[in-house]
Amino acid sequence: MALTEEERRRLAQLEADLAADDPKFANALRGSGHRWARRQTVLAALLFFLGLAALVGGMELHWLISVLGFVVMLGAAVLALRGFEQADAAAGTTDHRQSGDRSDERHHRPSGDGN
């Protein structure tokens, strides 16, 4: 859900007031989002490889281990995506098209063949 311009303005004002009142606390809050997102992404990578090992190892032992490995891999992928989103949100770039990425526009240009 996107914020309205008024909500964004109020949030920016609150952030500026917090930074002016207590700069150490404001810096601590800014840094914690990146740190947690990084930990979450590393955890997701470890879980993904653990799930991959269970998937491959389960082919030799029992098919349920392979299914469990796949579920762990799927959960790790979701965890990694959430970590990436949190890192983007902490950096303030949730919409990649706002940051100058115009790749979608190139692929959706109308062709000149009249269709």
UniProtKB/TrEMBL annotation:
Segments of skewed composition (Basic and acidic residues): 94-115
Transmembrane feature ranges: 40-57, 63-81
InterPro entries given in the database record: DUF3040
One Pfam entry name: DUF3040
Keyword annotations from UniProtKB, A to Z: Membrane, Transmembrane, Transmembrane helix
Region (Disordered): 90-115
Protein name stated in the entry: DUF3040 family protein
Source organism: Propionicimonas paludicola
Phylogenetic placement of the source organism: Bacteria, Bacillati, Actinomycetota, Actinomycetes, Propionibacteriales
